[in-house]
Each structure stands twice: as C-alpha cells, then as structure tokens.
Amino acid sequence: MSDKAQRLADKLVGEGEKTLAFFRSLPEEAWNVQIYEDGAMWQVRDVFEHLCISEHSLRRLFERVLATGQGAPEGFDVDAFNKEKTGRFASLSRDELFALYAETRRATIAFTQGLTGEQLAVRARHPAMGDASLEDMIKMIYLHHQMHMRDVKKGLNI
To answer: What are the tens digits of pLDDT across the range 99-112?
Structure first.
C-alpha cells in the first residue's frame, strides 16, 4: 500500500462516518422530503440509496479499470443509470440501508488500501468526470457524497 492510498483510505473512513452519522441523525419523516425537483425527483431516502449504489458501482468499475484498463464506456449516460438503479433497494429499512452503506464503504476502503502508487496513477474514463486517474476517481466518491449531503441539508433547511 502506498502513502497516497492510505491517505485516501483514511479520508474515506472519516467522510463515510460523517455521511452515515448525518443520515442516521435525520428523523424518519425527513426521509420523505423531496430534495431534487428536476430530473431525478429524489427524496432524502433516494439520495442515500443513490450513494450506496453509486459507490458500489464505482468500486466495481475501478476493479475493471485495474483488470482490463477500461473505464466507463463512451457515451455512458449517468442520468439513465441513476434512474434505472435508484429504487432497487426500496424494500430495505433505514437500518438495512445504513448497514448496506457501511459495508459498501468498508469494501471501498479495503480496495483503496491495497492500491500501489502506480495503480492510483492509472487513467480511464469515469462515468461523470471523463478521463481521470484512479486516485481522482476515488476522491470523487467522498466529494460526491459531500455534494449530496449539502443538497439534503439545503432541502431540509438544516
């Protein structure tokens, strides 16, 4: 493991704890508040589910990048992916979603801790960023979560 990988893993740990604590702190009724009014039309619950799904999917993409050198396909439609996948865990309780998030983050941390400096420098197509290093793609995971938490806070007037 490289020093960069450990720093990224440490950041994933800290930011994951903040994300989980934030969503756990919300009262049950807040989970039904509409956050996005255009496009996805997501409620708080949908946003949290999206964080679980996107992180899991990105980690699988990262594994593929290392195995094959191939990232997201040209013309990948992030909005269509999100529309198709979000709602997949609608039957899970909040506690089950929290457990899913924690397990997903643990797997991302373990993956990151195993990376070398050379692997972090590998470049491929990220679904939203385009061409990027694996290091930047991993950083985007926690930045993506921060962005959605900011939107939820704004939507809930927190």
So the answer is: 999 999 999 999 99
Domain 3-155 has CATH 1.20.120.450: yes
Print the SS3 string covering the chain: CCHHHHHHHHHHHHHHHHHHHHHHHCCHHHHHCECCCCCCCCEHHHHHHHHHHHHHHHHHHHHHHHHHCCCCCCCCCHHHHHHHHCCCCCCCCHHHHHHHHHHHHHHHHHHHHCCCHHHHHCEEEECCCEEEEHHHHHHHHHHHHHHHHHHHHHHCCC
> The whole model's pTM is what?
0.92
